[in-house]
Design brief:
single chain; 266 residues; alpha/beta; Rossmann fold; seven-stranded mixed sheet; 7 strands; 44% helix; globular
Length: 266
Amino acid sequence: MSDQPEYYVQTAGDQSRPPLMLLHGFMGGSDDWTVDIVPTLAPDFFCLAPDLPGHGRTLPESNDEFRMERCAERVVTLLDERSISRCHLLGYSMGGRLALYLALRHPDRFDRVILESASPGLKTEKERAERIAHDKKLAERLNAESMKRFLELWYSQPLFASFDQSSERSQNLLERRLTNDPVGLSRSLKHMGIGVQPSLWDELDKITAPLLLIVGGRDAKFRAIADNMAVSCPAARVQVIENAGHNVHFEKRDEFIEQVRLFLSE
């Protein structure tokens, strides 16, 4: 028996099609992809969407399993278990940080990589220390307050200013967020947050896979990050989707899917 924790994974599509791994963001889960994105992509790709540690139905006991290095190992194991030698990779926000790490540490496994609203980490020790302290406070609030109150706090951030919470789709998304385990989320913040992950800025020129950086036109912070990444990474190009904020695939689903399809068909 394997001593590795079991990841909950949803799959869709014919296994004879090109495989595509989809990695969700913080407080998300595999359902984020399977509800809105996978139904359109599954006719052309074999889609795999795991719940990452602390999210949905993947709740490891060991804090070590939340570290980016271990998460990357487990993603590769998921591919091995299905005899998938190479696949495409799509990651959003936290999942995008993991996808970038995978592209650098396991370049032989991934053909094309799409990062949505993602970062290579923080450049300085000062930035990392400040973010670790910030995420520690967030984790404490997760454990002290209701998930409903934490969601209100999370979506009050400028990153989500364009997220319309009044629509039925948005309410369904928020309902899915409420099903998460707050202890699991707090452990994710503390052990896989951007402050504790390895900074990958100095390694961007080593990426060999074609890299698409999708950002929302209203997300000034991550537009700037993507532009800076593209300067350092010859394999990368930036695609801005107008009138979208941080969560591009939710706010502008059709435009997002169109760009994904175009890039993966090149």
